[in-house]
């Protein structure tokens, strides 16, 4: 492949306009490494998506979900249509909508969403019958089953002891809640659940899966490993889950009511093919190649110092011989341009020259460009001679 010759002297007068593009992020924090595809404080990283927050619920009134929530039940018959009986054949559920709530009809069986999903933030509000009947596991029992597999217990434990790993807010059969923060029967209880499914690869467990649960705003599970998801009497053990599954609500013979059920899918963990946290080296390398390609495409639309800086930046993510040669030649040409600038015109260029010096310093410090780069001592001499840095 032929290398495009670097253009003649880079006209400094065109540079100031482009400079703000690189004002933040680049050549600043530690660069990408073997498992982190982005630099520290990296402006190439996507901005977090905008979400308009919802409102909090009160006992009298359910709150409004966040703008990106997928609503599973909002008190209407229309959202009841998102559910079906948990049977082998698709059947309408016998649970009923009453006064804007979804009510379990004892003996009708579990209910499940038609939609299937996995990792999520799930919001569920429930209310045990005001008329207190039964005790221990027999009072106001229902349950929230993520992927239909693992239960966050719903139980009226207001003045009602039971085995702790079957308490309201427990990962049933796995872990008791840290606290009993229930309101009285008939009042509304709010569960905010963060769920991560187990991740297995080639038969090896990479993550047991996790639950974090807030009960009425009180933490009751904090990244609790699923250990297979729990169950009744028999201890569960880690095993793979399907890719996704329905949300199920339990019929345990009590007319428990639900309202305001919604979820938000969560971005994938690094162990599950995503780019949250430290990645496997091969996945990080692929991601860095992708980032470098995007930056080089951006550089191709630019000119002068702006182009050079962007090309340099791309080398922090992935080596590319053509980009390297163009960059090194471009830097040499840039220095020639600086040297050719009359002393009387240097002061207005101070910002862009110092920025370039900083970038070259970063690139050589982290060995993305050779420390022997001729431009480095040349630009150091220029800024010292003019008095911008101390000799
Ligand atoms: Mg239950």
Radius of gyration: 30 Å
Helix content: 10-25%
Q: What structural class should be given to the helix and strand makeup?
A: alpha+beta
Q: What characteristic shape results from the CA principal axes?
A: elongated
CATH architecture of the largest domain: Sandwich
Describe the structure.
With 391 residues, the protein is an alpha+beta fold. The protein has 2 domains: 12-46 and 279-386, no CATH class; 70-272, Exo-inulinase, domain 1 (Jelly Rolls). Helix content is 22%, strand content 21%. It has 7 helices and 15 strands. It has helices at 15-18, 77-80, 281-299, 304-315, 321-339, 350-365, 375-385, and strands spanning 70-73, 83-85, 96-98, 101-103, 111-117, 120-127, 142-146, 150-154, 189-196, 199-201, 204-207, 210-215, 218-225, 245-249, 257-265. Strands 1, 3, 4, 6, 9, 12, 13 and 15 form an 8-stranded antiparallel beta sheet that branches. A hairpin with a 3-residue loop joins strand 7 (142-146) and strand 8 (150-154). Helix 4 packs parallel to helix 6 (350-365). The longest helix is centred in the last third of the chain and has 19 residues, at 281-299. The model is unreliable at 1-23 (pLDDT under 50). The protein binds magnesium ion (MG).
